Amino acid sequence: MYLSDTKIQELIDSEVLLHADASNIGQVTYDLRTDGFYINENKQSEVELGPGDSTFVSCVECVALPNDLTASVLLRNSRIRQGLSLDAPLYFPGHGTRLFYRVTNVSGNTITLDKSKGIAQVAFQRVDGMVAHPYHGAFSDELNFKGLADYSDVYAGELKKVENKKEEIVNIESRIYGNVLALFAIFAAIFTLVNVNAGGLSSNITTVNFVALDLLIIGGFLVLASAIEAFLVKNREKKASLPLVLGIACIVVAVVLAFQ
Q1: Is residue 10 predicted with pLDDT exceeding 60?
Q2: 115 and 93 in contact (C-beta within 8 Å)?
Q3: What is the pLDDT of residues 183-233, one digit of tens each?
Q4: How many whole angstroms separate alpha carbon 165 and alpha carbon 153?
Q5: Side-by-side strand order, sheet with 90-91
Q6: Model confidence at 154, in pLDDT bands (50, 70, 90)?
């Protein structure tokens, strides 16, 4: 059962809802004020969210919940229509903390948030009976944003897996671009060789110079392929040196033949 406006006023008077402004009381909710935005645990007074971006929001208000009361943070209707989504925990009986929540831009537009305009509201629910074990966990007495707090070590492996997957996707993208450019280089090399050889057959060029010219073209395209790979492949251990070595070898042999 949600508490009414008169009951919320009683929560302010009894310091269950702290640092509150009575003018923000609604019928069954209280409009929260923004204290700051957290990006990578760095506090900011204003944030610009692109599509898919998120930020944690700290509120001016704090709660000191008794053993028979919970609090839920909800997104305001106007913000839902704007394109924001909100995630917040259920604040358990016995929890004393500043109120925090996370908002995500699920629209296709950039949304700028600052402390002057409200984003969320809090509603209170009375528990049927007193809880036997009030909340006392990693986020007790959190007046400043703690991030993962004591859960950092617990979730470190999962965060690392996500980063590894992200790196794999970047490498796959690089390989795709590299393969496309390599195919273009191969077609260009074949086209160039056909044109040069066709022209060579109709001229008085010697066989040695003919071979030297072909080797020079092949070597140049191998060096080009190596340059493409060096530019696109981020992991140096995965870069192949054979095309570069073969390219340089072809160019050296071509130069030697040309001067004979």
Answers
A1: yes
A2: no
A3: 776 777 677 767 766 666 556 677 777 777 778 888 887 787 777 777 666
A4: 19
A5: 30-31, 120-126, 69-75, 90-91
A6: very low
Angle, vertex CA 53, rays to CA 48 and CA 56, nearest 5: 80
* Distance separating alpha carbons of residues 70 and 151, to the nearest angstrom: 23
Is the Cβ–Cβ distance between 65 and 15 less than 8 Å?
no
Residues 61, 71 contacting (CB under 8 angstroms)? no
Those residues whose C-beta lies under 8 Å from the C-beta of residue 111, and which sit 6 or more positions away, are 48, 49, 82, 83, 84, 105
SS3 label, residue 54: strand
Residue 15 parent element (H or E)? none
pLDDT in tens, 62-108: 999 999 999 999 999 999 999 999 999 999 999 999 999 999 999 99
Token representation of residue 247:
């390219």
Instruction: Report residue 246 as tokens.
Output: 């073969």
Strand-pair partners of 87: 102
Any residues with CB less than 8 A from the CB of 165 and at least 6 apart, and which? none
